[in-house]
Amino acid sequence: MERSAGYLTLLGLLLGLATTLPNKDDWDIYSFHINSTVTSRYATTVITSRVANRMDESKEIEFHVRIPKSAFISKFRMFMDGEVYDGVVKAKEQAVRQYTEAVSRGQSAGIVSSVGRTLEEFKTSVTVAAHKKVTFELTYEELLKRRLGKYELQIHARPMQPVTDFKVDVNINEDAGINFIDIKGGLSTKDLANAITKTETAKQAWIYFYPTVDQQKVCDSCSDNGLNGDLVIFYDVKRDASFGDLVTKDGYFVHHFAPSELPRIPKNVVFVIDQSGSMHGRKMQQTRVALIHILADLAEDDFFGLITFDSDIFHWKRELVQATQKNIDQAKKFAENIQDRGSTDINKAVLEGSRMLNAHPREDSASILILLTDGDPTSGETNPERIQANVRKAIAGKFPLYCLGFGFDVNFEFLEKMSLQNNGLARRIYEDSDANLQLQGFYEEVATPLLTDVTMMYIGGTNLTQTNFSQYYNGSEIVVAGMITDNDIESFVPEVVALSRNSRVTFSNPNATTGTASVDRIQRVWAYLTVKQLMEKELQLSGPEKEKVEKEAMDLSLKYSFVTPLTSMVVTKPPGEDSAVLNKPKEGGSTLPSEPDVGSSVDSSVSSAPPTQRFLLRPANVSLPLCFDLSATNVKLLHQTSRGLNINGEINPEENGGFRSIVINAQSDLSIEVKTTGVTVKEGQTSTHYSSPTQITAGSVTVIIRDKDIDVSFGDVRLVILGHEISGRKFLWPVFRQLPLDNQAAGVLVANLDYEEGAASTIKVKGQEVTVSRSSAVDYSVPTPVTVDCWLLSAQEAFQRPSSDLYN
């Protein structure tokens, strides 16, 4: 439930960054180069930052960049005093051991974390002697994905200060030929447009972005701190043959298949829309707007269904109907009147959508099921594994399921697994002003099916990536890579068989090309695709099969030095300097894998002082979140005396160690205590402990225990308690999904305060000017923790009252 600005979210502290970040004014980034080379849609990008310490004393110098989420870091190096310090990719467990040895000596962690929709943030630092220099060099790789008829190469520039020698060089090589190329993004507009040079030939393109120091201060998102924005390059290749582009080299091949001159296949589509209470406000409004636009885009030979759900199901029509103008107009009126209410029965809703499609078989058509939800299952069947099994049985491989997860509160891993099990995919919809456009954009990607039951066959091929695809959509692309047995190109016969609108079709091409891509580049495309697909497969498995696939993915990641969710890069630094471990975040994961603990030292000595925990404020009128520390054992999370509701949290003894327990007193004789080991419910003199997934009703309180979180609802309040585990340390994290409707509640998580941006490094709190410093923390209030920057102030300054008022 949305409330006004100022609600608090608990955050873990990133070790080594608890104090003010290194002061960038103490060093000079005198050179910052980004060089990206794209060959046959595979991009290798190198970021090189050269920095000088101009001070008369040693300074900590930071390297801080953002890279695409789809990319794998493959190399990181530092050059200092004639020495080269290389990052080494290791199995995550090995990296943990090396990291643990480092932090036991008080050293700090580098980290890669998710930032926004499309980027991940990488940062590390090193101490540089007076008047000395350091060079940072980071390499990452990605296979560009074709969406809506174009590839997208995103380059983010954020050097943190204007740079005298700033250059972005992009070279695109496509043997198939370049059809068009466009340059967009915040760094391509207005005053920066003339800093861009573009040169094209039939098969190559060069883009140079060389802004002056003055130009680096004037873009829409720029300031005296320099550039902070994207340069986005869109392009597509020429497609003379329906078979696509097949490149072979020294025993490897890559096949790009994207035929376009095909008749569209009529579709049967059912939209399953969450209208539970958590969709209140802008989410529901944006969903209505998007749905109305999507309905208007249906073709007349399409059939469609529309259902909404909370704890019940609401049909527009109980069966699919043709997309005539009359039916579309009626469906739009239904969409306009969707109202949020109730809880969330995902199981019942998706099964009903499946029933509607199964009841409407139609030759020469393609069926699609689209689920939009922002929450976890909270009514009906709530066990994710049983829901996934039910849905898989209902769909039975007959059509794909696409799951759109609205916001960061959604259990994305649950949706992702359910989609992959049913030949679809999951996509996160971000809670921004353009969420309705995100929804429409996704629909456009699947709006025009051209082929179904696509089988990619390669006689004489081995170690192939995925070769079977349920549907192929206009504007997309299927990519398959593999090896040619014994490098016998004469016996290598590729062929594609699929169903078109009216017939079975076969695509073949006896004229495979060698192209300009090196064998190393083709091998890396194969390895990149294989690792990505193994990680998707691993998500769907359990037991020995899961372990086998994990090992295969990890071995390949190690061989090609990819930083993946199964590997880490250990960054070696000069003797006496901080080691660092880089981990790739997993989109939407419920918990972090066993990896270096970025929240606490491994020193287990216990101080007599109360533990310290960092909290975050998110005011609407401040550019960065605010954060403050509380030193306490028990903290008031929410107190509402009018209904006798008290929720308190016991902080772990480790600094920034999360919560050891959460205690909910909902009425005079009802107490619910949540620990990492389970839930204890006390009603009067009766006490019952639960440790496995189940649903409990006690008085007016409903508790749903899942494998990785616990959902507690009472009236207009809903609390989700996330479980995290890092380096074997388990802890809890409370997150309110719905807050009391009145303003009588108090506590750390329900502050309703107004803030304003002041002068440099100041914030106005109730009109009082407060000095703040730059800091950073890890947000554990989401299933996959993310690192955020924040302005640090004291709790007393944040609340304008003694911090002891927040202790229980």
Describe the 3D structure.
By secondary structure, this protein is of the alpha+beta class. The chain has 4 domains: 24-239 and 562-583, Sandwich (Immunoglobulin-like), CATH 2.60.40; 242-263 and 451-508; 267-447, Rossmann fold, CATH 3.40.50; 605-806, no CATH class. 16% of the residues lie in helices and 42% in strands. α2 runs parallel beside α7 (435-446) and α8 packs antiparallel against α9. The longest helix has 22 residues, at 519-540. The two termini are 26 Å apart.
Main beta sheet strand tally, sense and closure:
10 strands, mixed
The chain-level mean pLDDT equals 84
Oligomer: single chain
Number of domains: 4
Please name the CATH architecture of the largest domain. Answer: Sandwich
What gross morphology would you assign?
globular
Helix content percent band: 10-25%
CATH topology of the largest domain: Immunoglobulin-like
* CATH class division of the largest domain: Mainly Beta
Q: Segments where pLDDT lies below 50 for 5+ residues?
A: 1-22, 103-111, 588-608
CA radius of gyration is: 27 Å
Beta fraction of the residues? Answer: 35-45%
Query: First CA to last CA: what distance?
Result: 26 Å
What is the β-strand count?
50
Instruction: Identify the strand order in the major beta sheet.
Output: 13-14-11-2-3-9-5-6-31-32
Helices, by number, come to 10
Estimated structural class: alpha+beta
